[in-house]
Amino acid sequence: MRDTFTHYEYLEVLPGVSADDLKRAYQRRILEVHPDKLQQRQQSSPTSALATTNNFSKVQLAWQVLQDPRKREEYDGYLADLATRSHGIVHEAVTLDEMHFDE
């Protein structure tokens, strides 16, 4: 299981989401993770209160980045760079016959 999620995952949307759908997703998610709303629904323990505050902050940060077109473009570039580094880029196929080995 991953320890970190993307801003898109915190808002439960896909990267190509429209501005209107992004706003609706933010409004829905912020109500789901807002500490006051959660406290009304359940008796919070100190541990769950910390998790709630953490999720609330992450949803807010996700919104701050993704609602701004310039920040969103930079963030998308960052995600693309991460994906490239983690998967590598293959520029062309090379056969073993084309490789030279020193023995």
TrEMBL record:
<feature type="domain" description="J">
    <location>
        <begin position="6"/>
        <end position="79"/>
    </location>
</feature>
<dbReference type="InterPro" id="IPR036869">
    <property type="entry name" value="J_dom_sf"/>
</dbReference>
<dbReference type="InterPro" id="IPR018253">
    <property type="entry name" value="DnaJ_domain_CS"/>
</dbReference>
<dbReference type="GO" id="GO:0001671">
    <property type="term" value="F:ATPase activator activity"/>
</dbReference>
<protein>
    <submittedName>
        <fullName>DnaJ sub C member 24</fullName>
    </submittedName>
</protein>
<dbReference type="GO" id="GO:0008198">
    <property type="term" value="F:ferrous iron binding"/>
</dbReference>
<keyword id="KW-0862">Zinc</keyword>
<dbReference type="InterPro" id="IPR001623">
    <property type="entry name" value="DnaJ_domain"/>
</dbReference>
<dbReference type="Pfam" id="PF00226">
    <property type="entry name" value="DnaJ"/>
</dbReference>
